[in-house]
């Protein structure tokens, strides 16, 4: 788990980010100062990794794709150092047994009493809207028997949309922490798919309320594929050579 390095990175980044971007925060008192809890957030931008956990006095441990830690050369070393510094634990996201391994890792983090940060959409929003959540967050909440805090990023899409290497200046990012969601009425029902969907949808509704985003009832990954296909169809056919 991230230790001294986490706090070193935070101590270095925090003053710089506050000076340059002037981030704002609402609802930090909703996050308990001790004990296991899940932070379930929308995912708008790479900038979420910088600003999401910034206001909290506790370490936030997140699950990230293993590719962040396996790159080669200087870029690979910097990527590994950054994600380790912001509290990311590498997981295999290829599905099947890998998904179960990710679940077990998340449960271990929670059973050790940590704050676990999750993006239920599974990937960044391609257009700033809020997409359907995957039910892994519900499995974790019910199996670990912990509350879920909705964790809404605001303005990070406008500041640094997917594909933009550097953030725009003049846009203030914000974070809203909602009231804890208690799912104790569903404990022992973590194998029921309908229950998992109901819990996940309740979390996404709370995120929609906090963030003000438009909700789309499809997975973000599917939306990205559809958008890529539409973009290819709009491309003009190649000009035949003379």
TrEMBL record:
Signal peptide positions on this chain: none
Ranges for domain Phospholipid/glycerol acyltransferase come to 37-156
| GO cellular component terms, semicolon-separated | plasma membrane
Q: Which domain of life is it from?
A: Bacteria
Q: Which stretches are transmembrane?
A: none
Keywords, ordered alphabetically: Acyltransferase, Transferase
**What Pfam family does this protein match (any one)?**
Acyltransferase
Gene Ontology molecular function: 1-acylglycerol-3-phosphate O-acyltransferase activity
GO BP terms: namely:
phosphatidic acid biosynthetic process
Question: Would you tell me the protein name for this molecule?
Answer: 1-acyl-sn-glycerol-3-phosphate acyltransferase
């Amino acid at each position: 788990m991230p230790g001294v390095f986490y706090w070193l990175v935070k101590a270095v980044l925090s003053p710089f980010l506050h000076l340059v971007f002037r981030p704002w925060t609402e609802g930090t008192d909703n996050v308990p100062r001790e004990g296991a809890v899940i932070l379930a957030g929308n995912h708008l931008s790479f900038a979420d990794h910088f600003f999401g956990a910034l206001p909290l006095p506790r370490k936030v441990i997140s699950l990230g794709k293993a590719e962040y830690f396996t790159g080669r050369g200087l870029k690979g070393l910097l990527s590994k150092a950054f994600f380790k510094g912001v509290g990311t634990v590498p997981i295999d996201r290829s599905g099947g047994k890998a998904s179960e391994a990710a679940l077990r890792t998340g449960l271990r983090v929670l059973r050790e009493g940590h704050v676990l940060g999750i993006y239920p959409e599974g990937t960044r929003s391609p257009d700033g809207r809020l997409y359907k959540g995957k039910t892994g967050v519900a499995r974790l909440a019910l199996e670990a028997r912990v509350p879920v805090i909705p964790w809404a990023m605001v303005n990070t899409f406008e500041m640094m949309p997917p594909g933009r290497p550097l953030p725009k200046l003049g846009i203030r990012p914000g974070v809203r922490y909602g009231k804890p969601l208690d799912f104790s009425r569903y404990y022992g029902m973590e194998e029921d798919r309908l229950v998992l969907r109901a819990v996940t949808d309740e979390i996404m509704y709370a995120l929609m309320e906090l963030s003000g985003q438009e909700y789309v009832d499809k997975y973000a990954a599917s939306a990205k594929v559809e958008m890529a296909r539409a973009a290819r169809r709009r491309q003009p056919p190649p000009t035949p050579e003379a």
